[in-house]
Amino acid sequence: MAEPRRRRRSLRTRITGAATLVVAAALVVGALAFYGILSVSIHDTTRRAAETRAEQLAARVDAEGPAVVAELDDDIVQVVDDEGRVVASSEEADSGDLPSSEGTVSYDDEPMLVVREDLDDGTLLLAVPVEDDAHTLATVAMLLAFAVVAVVVLVAATTWWVVGRALRPVSRIRAEVDDITADRLDRRVAVPPSGDEIAALAGTMNRMLDRLDAAATVQRRFVSDASHELRSPLATIRQHAELAQLHPEATSVGDLAEVVRDEGLRMQELVDALLLLTRLDERAELQRDDVDMDDLALAEAKRLRAGGTRVDASGVHAARVRGDARLLSQLVRNLADNAARHAGSAVAIAVVERGGQVLLTVDDDGAGVPAGERERIFDRFVRLDEGRARDAGGSGLGLAIVRAIAEAEGGSVRVEDSPLGGARFAVVLPAAR
Predict the structure, then answer these.
(1) What are the Cα distances from residue 120, in Å, to 61, 72, 76, 159?
(2) Whole-angstrom Cα distance, residue 186 to residue 175?
(3) Alpha-carbon gap, residue 81 to 56, rounded angstroms
(4) What pLDDT sits at residue 5?
(5) What's the average model confidence in pLDDT over 379-401?
(6) Which of 223, 259, 226, 221 minimizes the C-alpha distance to 240?
(7) Cα angle at 320 between 317 and 321, to 5 degrees?
(8) Cβ distance 46 to 113 under 8 Å?
(9) What are the residues facing 77 on neighbouring strands?
(10) CA–CA distance from 332 to each of 201, 230, 343, 425 (Å)?
């Protein structure tokens, strides 16, 4: 039942119906207007001709007398006196008295137009047949009706054909898209060579499929990497638990508790990072406060120094952004931890505001990041070769979180060469107004 209803309400049917109704309405109004104007014009022409003829006959009667009326063969004329009595009649008017009032009347079972013309002594009445006018108008009405119907049918057929031809690529695109499933996102729809809106639609569909394919690929890789990262601490806990169960003399409860605690913390950090990324991916509404980036930078410098890292914070100047303080603190901490992890002996943190933007830079004197890896390093679960060890590389989500937070706050992050010889991570954020 649903399919026939969908066909009746299809775009092709609606466009054809709308175009046909508009054209039909315009043609009907035009035909009625034309018929009305033509009718008035024909009646006015007949009346003027009758009045002219009546004036000629009146002048002749005044000059020669009423008797001349009887000599008229083709005109229906009567002369009446002031009392309304017929004084003289033409041969065509012998069948009866003509009405004394002007207008269209029925005389001798035929429509007639009667006009009056005053005489020196009485009134002249002239009747002119209007049957030909009626026949002319009837013929025009029939031709107009036929023309309106023919044009409406022609417009409907043409519109149906043109719209169907125009929408044929849409149907093909729809059929192709229907065949694309989650495991076949590499397929694309054919772009017609017309260069019109349909071709633009096909291009848009292909770009959407590109994004879906890329997102699905990233999601599959993300799930695989997350599973791998979670499997490692679980396997460690299981191995130590089995060892304690099979060989209790080889380990102690304290050792087992320490392993479980460390691996549990590692899983907790990973899950927290995944939840944060998910929240940022969903573009959840963030809290907006004025945040002093210099305070966050100085706090991280103090924390790193407490851990034994040499940190230069002389480049930290007052700068304020408007954003989520917790997320911005996470951004600065991730960059600081990354720099400390890869630094040889020194880290430098700087904050400066200029041109309506706040620039945060974190430098280290480590091995740096190869130019070809400077974009990939922000992907999730990516760790470069020298940092793949668990104690050096973390979970591989820290820099992905940095980019996600920066973009969520309306900024960006990039990797450059550091004056210290290692890598510089530069974050640009809009300054608070």
Answers:
(1) 9, 20, 20, 68
(2) 16
(3) 19
(4) 46
(5) 63
(6) 259
(7) 135
(8) yes
(9) 126
(10) 43, 25, 16, 10
Query: pTM of this prediction?
Result: 0.53
Give how far Cα 47 sits from Cα of 54, 60, 75, Å: 10, 20, 15
Q: In what order do the strands lie in the sheet with 346-354?
A: 310-316, 346-354, 357-364, 423-430, 412-417
Give per-residue pLDDT as tens, 48-94.
998 898 888 888 888 888 888 887 777 888 888 877 788 888 877 76
DSSP string, 163-226: HHHHHHHHHHHHHHHHT--GGGTT--PPPPTT-SHHHHHHHHHHHHHHHHHHHHHHHHHHHHHH
Q: Please report the pLDDT score of residue 9 as a whole number.
A: 65
Residue 110: in which H helix or E strand, if any? Answer: strand 110-119
Mean pLDDT score of the chain, rounded to an integer? Answer: 83
Q: What is the pLDDT of residues 262-310, one digit of tens each?
A: 788 877 877 777 777 777 776 767 788 899 999 999 999 999 998 889 9
Q: How far is CA 102 from CA 47, 72, 80, 124, 404, in A?
A: 10, 21, 14, 11, 94
Are 114 and 126 in contact by the 8 Å Cβ rule? The answer is yes
φ and ψ at 382, to 5 degrees?
-95, 125
Alpha-carbon distances, residue 231 vs 138, 217, 246, 280 (angstroms) = 93, 21, 22, 25
CA distance 190 to 193: 9
Burial 255-273 (b: 16+ CB within 10 A, else e): ebeebeeebeebbeebeeb
Question: Considering only CA atoms, which of 175, 426, 402 is closest in space to residue 315?
Answer: 426
Burial class (CB in 10 A: 0-12, 13-18, 19+), 245: exposed
Residue 269's pLDDT is: 73
What is d(CA 138, CA 140) in angstroms, rounded to the nearest whole number?
5
How many CA atoms does the CB half-sphere of 125 hold within 13 Å? 29
> Does pLDDT of 390 surpass 70?
no
3-state secondary structure of 339: helix
What residue type is 105 in one-letter code? Answer: V
| Number of neighbours of residue 197 by Cβ within 10 angstroms | 10
Q: Which segments of 65-196 does DSSP mark as H helices, in order?
A: 131-178
Residue 74 to residue 88: CA distance in whole angstroms: 15
Give CB contacts under 8 A, 24+ apart, made by 391-394: 392/341, 392/342, 393/341, 394/337, 394/341
Measured CA to CA, the distance from residue 335 to residue 398 in angstroms comes to: 8
